Amino acid sequence: MASSPAASQPKTNRIGLTVIEYKGGKTTLCAGCGHNAISERIVDAMFEMGIQPERVAKFSGIGCSSKSPAYFLSRSHSFNAVHGRMPSVATGALLANRTLVGLGVSGDGDTASIGMGQFVHLMRRNLPVIYIIEDNGVYGLTKGQFSATADLGSKLKTGVINDLPAIDTCAMAIELGATFVGRSFSGDKRQLLAMLKAALAHNGTVMLDVISPCVTFNDHEGSTKSYKYVKEHDEPLHDVSFVPFFEDISVEYDPGTTIDVTMHDGSHLRLRKLAEHYDPTDRITAIRTVLEAHHKGEVLTGIFYVDPQRPNFLDLLHLTEKPLATLPESVIRPSREVLEQVMEELR
Ligand SMILES: Cc1ncc(C[n+]2csc(CCOP(=O)(O)OP(=O)(O)O)c2C)c(N)n1
Ligand code: SF4
Ligand SMILES: [Mg+2]
Asked: Which residues hold their Cβ within 5 A of ligand 3, which is an ion?
């Protein structure tokens, strides 16, 4: 039987694009690498949110994770920066053009070792950017040495045990001032997609640490970042769902079991409690909860902290609505009189 013309048409989103238009080049990462699954969820989230690919600016540093922006959104802007230096490149680009949707992809090595200095300053500014750490606990690209997020007691394939305590990037990001912080797992399609869609509705710094197993160097017995270990120890804090502003939000929910957070653009983030009550807008509780889970060896996932109200870095700087990059020289260049006045003041 011939299929109807409608059935053969690929599905389009609210701006008329198909999912193919959000894809990138063919991946060169290892088959089964968690980073590939994250790229797929980014494609889905951008498609489902109806983001124009040309509005997105992708940023990364160095590592297998930092290569991954080549494998999604080939129509978007992209800048592959020096190892650990992606935050300053992203900050400059997003200050120059505030209409861009900034998406940074980093690794645990790129962030928590060489890039730590840049990471902490990005987190405290609340720049509107989504910063994803594809966290496998090792430097995958340079053959699997422990990174600073490797758990105490985790074992390398060679038998080497990590005897340094791990840095918890989520606890750090909350403490430093990021306004949307969560942890997910590359193997949890549903949770990660909901979190990425909510991240796209946030108007400030989003920091998502996504556990993303390295199948080549860190997926064996004894590793705490393997698929098996994370599946067995994953403790979702809540069930994350997201209703974008362009969809009907009248879906019933019980305020006794679900927290509804209204996002900047009118979208709704809905967190249905799974165990005890958890308020994701309470910063101190968020830090304590993340650290307690870490101490117990649990892989706690979910959105730990969200503050949709805090002014972002662009507002703090009183940037013009019109992107700086598009202003004519006659506007951005100080006049001779102004420059002379400055010189006079310095005399
Ligand atoms: C300045 C500098 N120092 C060191 C390196 C070597 N190097 C390349 S990638 C990398 C670590 C990558 O680890 P991570 O960010 O966790 O990414 P993964 O490969 O695990 O996804 C290192 C140390 C480099 N490229 N540049
Ligand atoms: S080495 Fe590890 S992190 Fe790199 S692509 Fe392969 S599985 Fe992924
Ligand atoms: Mg890594």
From this structure: 107-109, 136, 140
